[in-house]
Fold:
Amino acid sequence: MALVGRKFPNLSVNAMDEMGDTFKLNVLEEAQKNNKKVLLFWYPKDFTFVCPTELHAFQEALGEFEKRNVKVIGASCDTAEVHFAWLNTAKDNGGIEGVTYPILADSNRNLSSQLGILDITNENYDEETGAVTVEGDNVTYRATYLVDEEGTIFHESVNHMPLGRNVKEFLRLIDAYTHVQEKGEVCPANWEEGKEAMNANREGVASYLSSSVN
Structure:
């Protein structure tokens, strides 16, 4: 079920910071109370392969997100203790030492279940025992959510496990959404900061298309 245009779930989740402190973090409140946009990205597991490349990529771009008043938050279903162990593992040993943004520890899967991003298939209910068994790893896909200052989701995307994300695309989407907020114009295909946008009417699209004809 698509969540774009809806408020992000109002749920507090354990999180770990780079200092090793565990605290509660509520993405909706983070956006609304601090008047910030939030980028929340989920990855399957700590101590894996594609995952650390993504966490380091978001860290490398952290200054660009902060310039845009965007809070970056990572998330998986690992415990806070496992996050802390990974944060204390050197980069050249597959770790994420140097990552400074918070990482959600959704070990009870309350939030990821609400978002519908868990790798679960073929749920089976045993009437005799009442047990439910599932296929799949019960970890999250590579889901990404962009949330505006009112707590409304304006972008969501989900990659399968082997496919790493392009961090620059999220910066572009944030720039585009901010342009819409500030200018009232809409952003056409392949729009980037500094390029021409358009008015959301027939005249606007006609003018844009005519000016973009080679």
Observations:
- The mean pLDDT is 95.
- The first strand starts at residue 12 and ends at 16.
- The chain is about 30% helix and 20% strand.
- The two ends are 40 Å apart (CA to CA).
